[in-house]
Amino acid sequence: MNLLWLQAAGCGGCTMSLLCAENPNVFDLLDGAGVNVLWHPAISLETGVEVSCLLSAVEAGEIPLDILAVEGAIARGPHGTGRYQMLSGTGRSMLDWLRALAPRARHVMAVGTCATYGGITTAGGNPSDAVGVQYEGALGGGALLASFRAGDGLPVINVAGCPTHPDWVTETLLLLKSGALGPADLDELGRPLFYAQHLVHHGCPKNEFYEYKASAEMLSEMGCMMEHLGCVGTQAVGDCNIRPWNGTGSCTSGGYPCIACTAPEFEEPRHPFTETPKIAGIPVGLPSDMPKAWFMALASLSKAATPKRIATNAIADRVEVTPTLRKPKGRT
Predict the structure, then answer these.
(1) d(CA 144, CA 148)
(2) 71 found inside a domain
(3) Which DSSP string corresponds to 83-137?
(4) 208 and 264 fall within a common domain
(5) Where is the domain boundary, 178, 194, 210?
(6) CA gap 29, 33 in Å, rounded
(7) pLDDT tens per residue across span 172-205
(8) Phi (first) and psi of residue 194, to 5 degrees
(9) One domain, residues 10 and 140
(10) Is the pTM here over 0.85, yes or no?
(11) Residue 183 structural domain
């Protein structure tokens, strides 16, 4: 299975994340699965004329293209020409190459939130008119039409994340290699369900504090970050706390709130990332699958029942009150 990887407008962070794949590393994994990397701008040896000839051969159908992976947003400016981002040495824009190669591919993957929905590249005034491969924010239709379908009949597979977890990318590739990824395996925004069926909240190390609504007030504190510090882990899709980066890391385990980087338009939340917008003291972004009245009632009860240990530790930067040790029954 031939894989061609293009890097468009972005920071390259998804490739950096992919290179951190462990047990096995990405090279051993792809080699073992029979995925042949035709070209990747950061890890392949071919440059210049060699790449230009390769791309032309793929475009002409002389080299089969099984997977086209695109990292980074696609700049459409100025005036729809795409010439704000040229693919060096080819005389053609990245937009032009994408539109030429995508119909040749059996599968098309957008890797990272810039490629899926526009992401950080589109923040601010977006002077380059950057978009995702098949989405502009949450709206269908980006560099490719909303009606686009690859050779396998699927829309663009959106492996969203900023950056993506390396396992999200490699697992998607392996599913495509085995023919095990179909329309029912993607959510409404084209994200693979194997990670998008989870919430970042699942497995969060701060869940005990969340249950009692024992909230941190500063980033250095141990408590739940939803009430004051802008965490939207109860609304954001991703299994970040179930399979953490490098076996141990995630945003919330590192003491930083989830900013929903797998979602369209996360880059401009219209408030500081580490602040929770409120109306009459009530957070606006409550869990999306629970009636707000029920949540507020439950929150009031939880706060009233908060053990001293949890209330004290929530606003501390380390454990100050340890759990009470229970004596075994029958012993004095």
Answers:
(1) 6
(2) yes
(3) TTSEETTTTEEHHHHHHHHGGGEEEEEEESHHHHH-GGGG-TT-TT-EE-SSEET
(4) yes
(5) 194
(6) 6
(7) 999 999 999 999 999 999 999 999 999 999 999 9
(8) -60, -25
(9) yes
(10) yes
(11) 2-194
